[in-house]
Amino acid sequence: MSDFASPDGIIRFLLRLPAILWAISFHEFCHGWVAYKLGDRTAAYQGRLSLNPLAHLDLVGAIMLLFVGFGWAKPVPINSRYFKNPRRDIALVSVAGAAGNFLTAFVCGIVASVAPFAIRGAMGLFMITLLYINVGLGVFNLIPIPPLDGSKILGVMLPPSMMRAYFFLEQYGMIIILVLVFTNILPMIMSPIVYNVAKLLARPLVYY
Fold it and tell me: Has residue 2 been placed in a domain?
């Protein structure tokens, strides 16, 4: 019997849904909120400065999160013309999504530390799921392959002489990501990173 066909497997699957909805919503909200604070109100005008999952849901990315463990949401629109320091501010907005995911994981660790009695049973299972979904999403989005956030951070750091190679990579970024996922190369690389980041941010939960 597969994990999904077992009662525990069904419970784990159902617990992933709210964890994913929170992870992608808060991730994109953080992008929009930091952009707003830096002078760009585009996300707010388009209704994306919200924690409503429907405002951010990308079907393929959500399915990837549900079944693979990492994925993406619909990108928040950013207009760098409103930024006072575009290179710096683009980097700050780009890193904000992953920072929001890592903050969620850190809060999970605090809860586990101060109220261990509150994370037993189904609640404990949900907290672990929330932890790993958020860490996985945060780490995945920092990979410097377009269109992920890490590529935008890399893009503002590259010298002009390397921008042609960057734009070439941008054309095929999603294909590269999918190949790395389905050949199991990316999961193999990411798994120890996600585990160690989770252990750093929420050690009590990792060993729960």
Answer: no
Residues 45-95 pLDDT 10s: 999 999 999 899 888 888 877 777 667 788 899 999 999 999 999 999 999
Specify the long-range contacts of residues 184-190, CB closer than 8 Å, at least 24 apart: 186/143, 187/68, 187/69, 190/70, 190/136, 190/139, 190/140
Catalytic-role residue among 24, 28, 90, 133: 28
Query: Active site includes 170?
Result: no
Give Dmax over CA atoms of the chain in angstroms.
57
Number of separate domains in the chain: 1
Domain extent for 187: 7-206
- Looking at the domain assignment, is residue 23 inside a domain? yes
pTM: 0.88
Does 136 fall in a domain? Answer: yes
